[in-house]
Amino acid sequence: MSGEVNSGIFGRLTAVVQIYRAVLRLVVMAMAGLSGLSVLAMIGITTTDIVMRAFGGALMGAYDMVRIAGALAIAFSLPYTTAVKGHVAVEFFFQKLNRPGRVIVDSICRVLVIGLFVVLAWQCVKYGHILRQTGQVSLTLQLPMFWVAYVIGGALAVTVLVKIHNLLHPGREMIKP
User: Are the CB atoms for 80 and 88 separated by under 8 Å?
Assistant: First the structure.
């Protein structure tokens, strides 16, 4: 009887973990798509501004729009880059360790990075609150800026979830590039 209960609980837990992983992958891929759209927006805005300047005009707020799109491109790309393990690693020192040593050092580094990203996400949300309370706006277009800090904080939070996945599944990418 207890074997059936354990099997049922384990089966449900496995199903929940699979759903969680699928949803996280979907969120990461959506954010990667938004990152690509942000890069395309920067290209389009810059190109439009250059063409307009060639004819004696300028695109009002181009600097504001490119600045925001750049922040979004970086923030939205971070979870995907983490999921495919695309970050630069210092392999020279790492390769000198034996397998257990590599696992320990890698796990410690992941835990430290998770802590760092949690603090960064929290600070971004706090900063977004400050920007909202003070009414901070962009220079030219006067767009509210608080939401950019919130988006960056959210992207960092998703990156934390990806890092936790990587910690629990060492040696495997969450998403194949």
Answer: no
Name which of 4-8, 22-26, 32-36, 50-54 the model is least confident about: 4-8
Residue with tokens 């000198």: 96
Which segments of 55-145 does DSSP mark as H helices, in order?
Answer: 62-83, 91-95, 99-134
- pTM listed for this prediction: 0.87
Distance CA 177, CA 167 (A): 19
CA distance 109 to 73: 25
Tokens of 31: 């954010």
Name the residue ranges covered by the structural domains of the chain: 2-168
Q: How far apart are CA 89 and CA 42, in angstroms?
A: 29
**Nearby residues of 49 by Cβ (< 8 Å), 6 or more positions away:** 58, 59, 62
